[in-house]
């Protein structure tokens, strides 16, 4: 009895402390309201609009590769915690890749520490590029026809490592240069032709490029990653219209925070850890509220679910007479993981179904692309596949390893940009922590 009351009182104390902190935080936040509004208006952000005001007036600022024969692009990605490089051919064949993950570093610190991530990128960038070139069977960067690099959104000091390296190489070797938008790169991965063992067609003009792609514009994209949770109407390269987004946390963030709460190893991302544990749990064991039931719109919210998981887990601690969540049995934690995942995906299904109805009626769109790191999740993939079958929609999702960040996404996005005759100037290219799409009609 005494241990039960002490565990319950320690959890009660934690709750009171949290409430107090929340209250203090609220007062503090009021000082920043004006600034937050300024950010919301986007006055500090550069907008991504490669096709100019009308969305289709592309300019090849650093030239284009010779498109009468297949060309190769070196893609570089360093927006968060993975240093990636890849060489992709214009017909979509991935010729060579290399990825240096920072899992071990971030495992130790319980998440991504920007300063450490930047140092790790600096340490690995040359090796990763060299390895990708070698794996592609090329002997030097001079044999590459163009270079694409992620310039935002992401962690500014990390983006700068990849961007500066790519600018340097593009200037030194005089190659066309493409500044890649990370979210567009995730979205366009749904169009990457399926990888075939044999070499594909050598015809790569714009018409054959379009028909060679796995899906054609327009389509609906569900983008679920660590930093974003959005639904977008995708009209063409550089032309996106955001239908809904998260009002607080992203889905990837919710997975990562829940994994941390349950004391799981999060070095490889909390998502895979929750997915594995959830397989051993009962998704109906723990009752959790589905977010935004009263708001019949297209937005997402995961902050409330995260709090509900924590309070439910704490209540279970009292019931089980343990002092912390990590001390709960494996089965209890598996049940929490499975129940969290079930509700998180139900929320996606509900919002997606509403967006599908809208786009089918207004735009005759019946194709869904599921992209971003969380799209690697098998449970999400299979449940959305069922939803699409029920709605007579087609669904496309990249292979799991191409859903999370890697170099091929920058290379393929660069190919898509070069195909519409769009490139950037490497001389004065900046990186953008925030990088909203120019909203299309
Ligand atoms: O796209 P991504 O690699 O990086 C960003 O652009 O944010 O996405 C990373 C996110 C992380 O939150 C990670 O936990 C999540 O994707 N993730 C998963 C899975 N694999 C990665 N979430 C759920 N299940 C997975 N299998
Ligand atoms: Zn990403």
Explain what you see.
- The structure is a single chain.
- It is globular and about 70 Å long.
- It contains 14 helices and ten strands.
- The longest helix is centred in the last third of the chain and has 34 residues, at 330-363.
- A five-stranded mixed sheet has the order 3-2-1-4-5, sandwiched between helices.
- Residues 1-6 and 25-43 have low confidence and may be disordered.
- The chain has helices at residues 2-30, 33-40, 103-109, 114-135, 156-173, 182-188, 206-212, 251-261, 270-278, 303-320, 330-363, 378-391, 400-403, 407-419, and strands at 72-77, 82-89, 94-101, 146-152, 177-181, 219-224, 229-236, 239-245, 367-371, 394-396.
- It has a domain at 241-398: 2-Layer Sandwich (Nucleotidyltransferase, domain 5), CATH 3.30.420.
- α10 packs antiparallel against α11 (330-363) and α11 packs parallel to α12.
- By secondary structure, it is of the alpha/beta class.
- α12 (378-391) links the parallel β9 and β10 (394-396).
- 5'-O-[(R)-(carboxyoxy)(hydroxy)phosphoryl]adenosine is lined by residues 80, 225-227, 252, 255-256, 269-272, 275, 372-374, 376-377, 404-405.
CATH homologous superfamily annotation of the domain at 241-398: ATPase, nucleotide binding domain
The main pleated sheet reads as: 5 strands, mixed
Number of strands: 10
Question: Tell me, what is the CATH class of the domain at 241-398?
Answer: Alpha Beta
* Helix share bin: 40-55%
Q: Biggest sheet, strands in spatial order?
A: 3-2-1-4-5
Percentage of residues in strands: 5-15%
The overall average pLDDT, rounded, is 90
Q: What is the radius of gyration?
A: 23 Å
**What is the end-to-end distance?**
64 Å
CATH architecture of the domain at 241-398: 2-Layer Sandwich
Choose one word for the global shape: globular
H/E element string? HHEEEHHEHEHHEEEHHHHEHEHH
Spans of at least 5 consecutive residues whose pLDDT stays below 50 are: 1-6, 25-43
In this entry the ligands are: 5'-O-[(R)-(carboxyoxy)(hydroxy)phosphoryl]adenosine, zinc ion
- Per CATH, what is the topology of the domain at 241-398? Nucleotidyltransferase, domain 5
Q: How many helices?
A: 14
Helical/strand content category: alpha/beta
């Amino acid at each position: 009895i005494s241990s039960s009351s002490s565990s319950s009182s320690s959890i009660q104390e934690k709750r009171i402390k949290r409430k107090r902190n929340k209250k203090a935080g609220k007062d503090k936040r009021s000082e920043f309201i004006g600034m937050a509004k300024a950010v919301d208006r986007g006055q500090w952000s550069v907008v991504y609009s490669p096709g100019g005001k009308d969305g289709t007036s592309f300019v090849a600022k650093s030239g284009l590769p010779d498109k009468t024969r297949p060309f190769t692009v070196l893609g570089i990605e360093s927006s968060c915690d993975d240093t990636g490089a890849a060489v992709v051919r214009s017909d979509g064949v991935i010729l060579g890749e290399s990825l240096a993950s920072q899992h071990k570093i971030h495992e130790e610190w319980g998440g991504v520490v920007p300063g450490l991530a930047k140092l790790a990128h600096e340490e690995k960038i040359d090796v990763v590029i060299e390895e990708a070139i070698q794996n592609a069977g090329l002997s030097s960067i001079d044999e590459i026809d163009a270079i694409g690099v992620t310039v935002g959104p992401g962690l500014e000091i990390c983006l700068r490592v990849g961007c500066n390296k790519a600018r340097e190489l593009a200037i030194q070797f005089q190659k066309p240069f493409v500044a890649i938008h990370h979210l567009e790169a995730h979205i366009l991965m749904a169009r990457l032709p399926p990888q075939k063992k044999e070499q594909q067609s050598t015809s790569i003009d714009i018409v054959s490029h379009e028909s060679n792609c796995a899906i054609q514009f327009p389509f609906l994209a569900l983008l679920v990653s660590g930093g974003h949770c959005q639904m977008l109407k995708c009209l063409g390269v550089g032309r996106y219209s955001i239908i809904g987004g998260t009002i607080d946390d992203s889905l990837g963030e919710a997975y990562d925070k829940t994994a941390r709460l349950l004391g799981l190893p999060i070095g490889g991302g909390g998502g895979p850890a929750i997915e594995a544990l959830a397989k051993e749990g009962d998704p109906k064991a723990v009752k959790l509220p589905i977010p935004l039931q009263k708001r019949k719109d297209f937005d997402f919210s995961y902050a409330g679910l995260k709090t509900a998981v924590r309070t439910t887990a704490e209540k279970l601690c009292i019931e089980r007479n343990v002092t912390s969540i990590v001390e709960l049995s494996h089965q209890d934690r598996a049940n929490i993981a499975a129940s969290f995942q079930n509700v998180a995906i139900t929320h996606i299904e509900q919002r997606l179904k509403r967006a599908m109805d809208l786009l089918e009626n207004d735009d005759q769109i019946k194709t869904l692309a599921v992209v971003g790191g969380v799209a690697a999740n098998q449970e999400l993939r299979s449940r959305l596949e069922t939803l699409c079958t029920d709605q007579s929609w087609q669904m496309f999702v990249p292979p799991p390893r191409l859903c999370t960040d890697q170099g091929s996404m920058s290379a393929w996005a660069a190919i898509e940009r070069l195909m519409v005759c769009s490139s950037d100037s490497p001389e004065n290219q900046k990186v953008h922590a925030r990088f909203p799409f120019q909203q299309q009609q």
